[in-house]
Design brief:
single chain, 197 residues, mainly alpha, Arc Repressor Mutant, subunit A, Tetracycline Repressor, domain 2, 10 helices, 72% helix, 0% strand
Length: 197
Amino acid sequence: MARPREFDETAVLDKAVQCFWNQGYEATSVRDLINETGLTGASLYNAFGDKRALYQKALDRYVSCSVAQRIQSCDALPPREAIGAFFTDIIQRSLSDPQHKGCMLVNAALELAPHDPEFQEIVAAVLKQIERFFFEHLSAGQGNGTISKAAPPEVLAKHLLGVLMGVRVLARVRPEPQLLKGVVAPALALLDDPNTP
């Protein structure tokens, strides 16, 4: 009979998230993870597998606590407000991070996805989820007249996804409010019908 774990797996994953998010996958050693989580190497391997498997679980945890929660909270808002609130939250998070870690998902896209097909699939699936969020709210907003019909929702959704990626990368090296807001403002302006009072 397996012995119950003597540690909180969620708390350990949260510490692993911080470790990988701060340093990146390659720069994070197993020793770093041991120091951060307080577990022995054997306990880490028994609970999570190797470093790559732990990184995948940490990335899943990050997505569920960050991206998925943001989408869920914005989903409750009217379409145009939902998209605006999504970007407002992104900018606030980007500017309030003293380490300028950026987005762990985008970091994974840049560091692992280019040469790891499995992580490419993982990252692509989350980006499609974000694009779908934009598309659904754009479609709803065009349907109720709160978002301009000047461009199709699928085109605007792709554009907003690109803007999001740009903001997250820029925030790592130039976390300046005027710059980040200046990137987002014209994209959001595309959604507003100039004929709407």
